[in-house]
Amino acid sequence: MAGGFPLSGEPHFPHDYPDCPAGARFQEEQEAELLAKFRRRPPAKRTNYIKHGCLAPFRCPWQQLAEEWELIVKEGGGGEEAVAPMEQEVTPPQSNFTVLRNRKSLRQLSAWCRPTSSKCQRARNLGSTPPLNRNVAASLLSAHGGGSLVWTRLSLLTKGQPEQHALVCVPTADDLQLVGKEPGCTGPQEPLHTDHFKSRVKRLHKKDHNKPGASSSAKPLNKQSDPASTSAPSVNPGPEPSSSSSLTLGPDITTPSSSCTSALTLGLWPEPLPSVTSHCSRVTLGWVTQGDFSLSAGCGEALGFLSLTGLLHTLLRQPDSQRGLVLLRNPGSMQYRFAKINIEV
């Protein structure tokens, strides 16, 4: 262990087994604990995860991620054309997701995630592993199902320390060109989102505070005015990546229903969640379950899960010399950082 972070190449039970009952229960208990800790903090001291573009800072909606990536590939046809917009509320899960544990398939994925920058390295990889193409990727998905997840290790290319529940996203063509020209660059930034639930939370709290018999000691929420809260729900677009048209699923701003209005918490997105893949400017591949700075590796490292469908979809569109590069962003940060994928068998 280095820096409090387990560096062994074996998954740890139960948090690295989200597809079993014990793993699901562990995630529920962890979410309840983190949510209670978040609510104990004063409202003015809480991180506003809505403005940071983080839908689920205390859990990882694996089922929704797997279903949305299946829909992306199905509607996009696996080609370069734009993907049709997605429904705002995700339908109930049809089948449970699974974690890929087949060693032969994991070896193939591990070889495909390594960049082939030299002829000898390319020949060595191709000698033991079939080259990655659409037919091979389709056969792998048909064998294990599109709803599978892949357990991976992520290593940051520059400074930074990954945190729990950090987002793992797909870099655009502009991002890959940037890191190719400047290997030490930090990475892009997520544009600031607008918290269009803040005014609702304040009105709800004020209504409860003015009720007859309300406790006189109840204190209102933080009184910092947000001029954007009075405007229509929107997200600051920021500079749109040129190659995001093949992955972006369209706007995903939803209005909370009356049933979830009473459960609003300042800074947290209420249920049901909108599209988890297209909510940010970079398409989401998965999340980090553990992260810290590794003293042995000399960089920030993380363990997490990625969608198998999304991973293959991404690798097919990356240059051979930059395969396996992703973006990582902590829940409380707007800064993306480049990381490389390492699938251990």
UniProtKB/TrEMBL annotation:
Gene Ontology CC annotation, any one: nucleolar ribonuclease P complex
Disordered, as annotated region: 180-252
Pfam families membership: POP1_C, POPLD
Domain POP1 C-terminal, residue spans: 148-345
Compositional bias of kind Basic residues: 199-209
An individual GO BP term: tRNA 5'-leader removal
Compositionally biased spans, kind Polar residues: 213-234, 241-252
Signal peptide: none
Residue ranges constituting the POPLD domain according to the UniProt record: 8-62
Name listed for the protein in its UniProt record: Uncharacterized protein
Organism: Coregonus suidteri
